[in-house]
Amino acid sequence: MALMITDECINCDVCEPECPNGAISPGEEIYVIDPELCTECVGHYDEPQCQQVCPVDCIPLDPERRENRDQLMEKYRRITAA
Fold first, then answer.
1. How far apart are the C-alpha atoms of 26 and 11, rounded to whole Å?
2. Partners of 26 in the beta sheet?
3. How far apart, in whole angstroms, are the C-alpha atoms of residue 76 and residue 82?
4. Single GO cellular component annotation (predicted)?
């Protein structure tokens, strides 16, 4: 699954630089994650780095973007090949 940022986001700016795929960016009110670029850090790290640094725990799995590890790895390969 891709990750998402909930309304609890406090715009602390710590998640954006941690994303190895550049999937996190400032939105209109809070940070947002581009699900086409989010691999949950598969291919880079063992755990999603944004979740590790988030001080308010507002980055859950996006229930509307169900992807298994193989699909996330394929997305990683596509992103890094570009």
1. 8
2. 31
3. 10
4. cytoplasm
pTM, full prediction: 0.92
Question: 11-17 contacts: CB < 8 A, separation 24 or more?
Answer: 12/55, 12/56, 14/53, 14/54, 14/55, 15/50, 15/53, 15/54, 15/59
- What domains are there in the chain, each with its CATH number? 16-81 (3.30.70.20)
User: Positive or negative CA dihedral for 51, 57, 62, 66?
Assistant: positive
Q: What is the pLDDT of residues 4-59, one digit of tens each?
A: 999 999 999 999 999 999 999 999 999 999 999 999 999 999 999 999 999 999 99
At 25 the three-state DSSP class reads strand
Pairing of strands 31-33, 24-26: antiparallel
Task: In whole angstroms, give the CA distance from residue 78 to residue 75.
Answer: 5
